[in-house]
C-alpha cells in the first residue's frame, strides 16, 4: 500500500479489519478531505461574535426537510451509550434500548488496541455473532428474547489525529479512520448510522456530507444510505442548527442536546470575556436554567420543523445495589429529567446503564402512547433569541469549595482511568466520559483566570487548586497517578487554555 503505514502494534483479529483494501479506502478519504479538515479546525481559533448568521438567513427561513428516516431509526425513545469494549457491547445489545450509541470518541481511550478491537466488536455486533468469555469463565452472548437496538457509531471529532496510522507521512485523521473502517466493513449490511461530535459550524457538517457522498460512491452504496445524528455540544453550533441539518439533509437523522460538552464549549469560547461569562459550580447548572432551556427548546423546534429527531441528554447514574436510598433518590431525578424532555417534545433520550433503559422507556411510553416519535410536536410557540442563548448569568449560583474539590477529584479520577485504557469510568455512582473531565478542568481554569471568589470568601488561585490536587493525590493510587495529576494540572492551570485535554493526554499513551 503506497504511502500507508500502520505504526501501532498487533491487535487480535486486527488483520480482519486492517486489510489492504480497507486501509486504501481510509487513505483515499484522508487524501481527499484532510486538507479541508485542517483548514476548518484552524478556523476555530478565530472566535467571532456569536449570533445567527446573516448570510444563511435563507436556509433558516426556507421550506425544506431532511430525508425521511429509515425504519430502524424511527423510534428512538431510549438510546444507551457506551464504549465498544466487548462485554459492554453485548450488554448494550441486550439492554432493550432502541439505539446503541457505540462510542469511539469520548468514552474511549484511543489506545491502538481500543481503536482496532472496537472495530472488531462492531463487525461482530453488526452480524449478530458477538460473544465473550470473561477471565473468570462467565459467558456473555446475545439474547434471543430481546430486540436488538440500531447501532449508531460515534467516530472521533475532527480535531483528533490517529498517530498509529500514517498516510503520506502524516498522522491520519481520527474521524476518517473510525468512520472509514466501520463503513468499509459494514456498509453492505445496509445500516451505516453515525453520531457526529464536536462540530462548530455548518461548514464542518458540509465536510461530513462530502465524506459520506464520496464513501457511498466508492463502495457503490446508494446515496442517502448513511444517516447521521449531530451532537449540538458547542456554543457556535447552537446558532447553526438549521444550517447543519441543511448541509446534511440527504443524510441527516437528527440533533442531540448534551450538557457537559456544551458547558465546556461555553467556557472555552468565553474564557476571557469577563464576569458575565463565568459559570457557577457545574452541578448547579441544570437543563432548566434559562440559557440551557433556550438551547434545548430551540433544538426541538428546529429538528421537528425539518423532520429530524430531537434526542435528549444523558442520564449517567449507575444504580447502587448496596445503597437503595441513593438509588431511589437518583432515579427520581432521572424520571423528572426524562419527563421534562418528553414533555418538551424530544423523541428520545440517553442512558448510560442498562438498568435505566426501562426507566426512560416508561416515561416516553407514557408520552408517546402508540406513536414512534414526536415529530408532529412542532413547538411553533418557541422563539429563541441570541441574547437568551448567551445569557449565562441566568444560571445564578456561584463557585464553592465543594465545587473546586469535586472538579479536581473527578478530573483526576477520570484521567487515571483514561490513561489506563478505559474511557468510560464509573465515578461516585456516575458513568463519566471525557466531557466530565473537560468541564471540570475548564471551570477551574476560568475561575482562576477571572479572579473568582468562593462563597466562603476564598479566592480561587492556582495555589488553592494545587493544594486540593495534592490532597486528592494522597487519596488515590494507580499505575498512572503521577501522570494523571500532571496532566490535570497542565490543562487546568496553564497560562494558555488547552483546547482539548485529550490532545496532550493522547501524546502520553501507547
TrEMBL record:
Entry's Gene Ontology BP terms: glyoxylate cycle; tricarboxylic acid cycle
Sequence ranges assigned to domain Malate synthase N-terminal in this UniProt record: 3-48
GO molecular function: malate synthase activity
UniProt keywords, alphabetically: Glyoxylate bypass, Transferase, Tricarboxylic acid cycle
Associated pathway: Carbohydrate metabolism; glyoxylate cycle; (S)-malate from isocitrate: step 2/2
Reaction catalyzed: glyoxylate + acetyl-CoA + H2O = (S)-malate + CoA + H(+)
Entry GO terms, CC: cytoplasm
Alphabetized CDD domains for the sequence: malate_synt_A (cd00727)
Protein name, as recorded: Malate synthase
Species this chain originates from: Saccharothrix saharensis
Lineage: Bacteria, Bacillati, Actinomycetota, Actinomycetes, Pseudonocardiales
Amino acid at each position: 500500500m503506497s504511502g500507508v503505514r500502520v505504526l501501532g502494534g498487533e491487535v487480535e483479529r486486527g488483520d480482519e479489519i486492517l486489510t489492504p483494501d480497507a486501509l486504501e479506502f481510509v487513505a483515499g478519504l484522508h487524501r481527499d478531505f484532510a486538507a479541508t479538515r485542517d483548514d476548518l479546525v484552524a478556523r476555530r481559533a478565530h472566535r467571532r461574535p456569536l449570533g445567527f448568521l446573516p448570510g444563511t438567513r435563507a436556509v433558516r427561513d426556507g421550506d425544506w426537510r431532511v430525508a425521511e428516516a429509515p425504519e430502524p431509526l424511527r423510534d428512538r425513545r431510549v438510546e444507551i451509550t457506551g464504549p465498544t469494549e466487548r462485554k459492554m457491547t453485548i450488554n448494550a445489545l441486550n439492554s432493550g434500548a432502541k439505539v446503541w450509541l457505540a462510542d469511539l470518541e469520548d468514552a474511549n481511550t484511543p489506545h491502538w488496541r481500543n481503536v482496532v478491537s472496537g472495530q472488531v466488536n462492531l463487525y461482530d455486533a453488526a452480524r449478530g455473532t458477538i460473544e465473550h468469555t470473561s477471565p473468570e469463565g462467565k459467558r456473555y452472548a446475545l439474547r434471543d428474547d430481546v430486540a436488538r437496538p440500531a447501532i449508531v457509531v460515534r467516530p472521533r471529532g475532527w480535531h483528533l489525529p490517529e498517530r498509529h496510522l500514517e498516510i503520506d507521512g502524516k498522522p491520519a485523521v481520527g474521524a476518517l479512520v473510525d468512520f472509514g473502517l466501520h463503513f468499509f466493513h459494514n456498509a453492505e449490511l445496509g445500516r451505516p448510522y453515525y453520531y457526529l461530535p464536536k462540530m462548530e459550524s455548518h461548514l464542518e457538517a458540509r465536510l461530513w456530507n462530502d465524506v459520506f457522498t464520496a464513501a457511498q460512491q466508492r463502495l457503490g452504496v446508494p446515496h442517502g444510505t448513511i444517516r447521521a445524528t449531530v451532537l449540538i455540544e458547542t456554543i457556535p453550533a447552537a446558532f447553526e442548527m438549521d444550517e447543519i441539518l441543511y448541509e446534511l439533509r440527504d443524510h441527516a437523522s437528527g440533533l442531540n442536546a448534551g450538557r457537559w460538552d456544551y458547558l465546556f464549549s461555553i467556557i472555552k469560547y468565553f474564557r476571557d470575556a469577563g464576569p458575565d461569562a463565568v459559570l457557577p459550580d457545574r452541578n448547579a447548572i441544570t437543563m432548566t436554567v434559562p440559557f440551557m432551556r433556550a438551547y434545548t427548546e430551540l433544538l426541538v423546534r428546529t429538528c421537528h420543523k425539518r423532520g429530524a429527531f430531537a434526542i435528549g441528554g444523558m442520564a449517567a447514574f449507575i444504580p447502587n445495589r448496596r445503597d437503595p436510598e441513593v438509588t431511589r433518590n437518583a432515579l427520581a431525578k432521572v424520571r423528572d429529567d426524562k419527563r421534562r424532555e418528553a414533555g418538551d417534545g424530544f423523541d428520545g433520550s440517553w442512558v448510560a446503564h442498562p438498568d435505566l433503559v426501562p426507566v426512560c422507556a416508561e416515561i416516553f411510553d407514557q408520552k408517546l402512547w402508540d406513536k414512534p416519535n414526536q415529530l408532529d410536536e412542532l413547538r411553533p410557540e418557541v422563539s429563541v433569541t441570541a441574547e437568551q442563548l448567551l445569557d449565562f448569568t441566568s444560571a445564578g449560583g456561584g463557585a464553592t469549595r465543594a465545587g473546586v474539590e469535586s472538579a479536581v477529584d473527578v478530573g483526576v479520577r477520570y484521567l487515571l482511568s483514561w490513561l489506563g485504557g478505559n474511557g468510560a469510568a464509573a465515578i461516585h455512582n456516575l458513568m463519566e466520559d471525557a466531557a466530565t473531565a473537560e468541564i471540570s478542568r475548564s471551570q477551574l481554569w476560568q475561575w482562576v483566570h477571572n479572579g473568582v471568589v468562593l462563597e466562603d470568601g476564598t479566592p480561587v488561585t492556582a495555589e488553592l487548586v494545587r493544594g486540593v490536587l495534592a490532597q486528592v493525590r494522597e487519596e488515590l493510587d494507580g499505575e498512572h497517578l503521577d501522570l494523571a495529576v500532571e496532566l490535570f494540572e497542565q490543562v487546568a492551570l496553564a497560562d494558555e487554555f488547552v483546547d482539548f485535554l485529550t490532545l496532550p493526554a493522547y501524546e502520553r499513551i501507547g
